[in-house]
Design a protein that fits this description.
Largest sheet: none
Shape: rod-shaped
Strand content: under 5%
Oligomer: single chain
Structural class: mainly alpha
Order of helices and strands: HH
Number of domains: 2
Bound molecules: calcium ion
Radius of gyration: 25 Å
């Protein structure tokens, strides 16, 4: 009879471990989705979504932002900074 009890306990423990693992995977997945959403966001508010925005730094409101999300000044700064690619 006690074997059944032991089995039940083992199944419970395994179930808990599996649930825990699934929770971890799921929260990772949720993070991934969040970062995907983040790519569609507009961090600096210049109406160019972050995916296409080469300059994610907020530009001064009086400066014109191009289709790449950069002001002339930001683009200048970019071209002067040594490329890491
Ligand atoms: Ca932007
Ligand atoms: Ca920008």
């Amino acid at each position: 009879m006690w074997e059944i009890l032991v089995m039940a306990v083992v199944i419970l423990i395994v179930g808990a471990v599996v649930l825990f693992a699934f929770n971890k995977i799921f929260s990772k997945e949720a993070e991934h989705v969040e970062s995907q959403i983040g790519k569609l966001g507009d961090n600096d508010g210049d109406n160019v979504i972050d995916t296409f925005d080469k300059c994610i730094e907020r530009a001064p409101a009086n400066e014109k932002v191009g289709s790449d999300g950069c002001t002339d000044k930001q683009r200048d700064k970019l071209s002067r900074t040594p490329s890491t690619y």
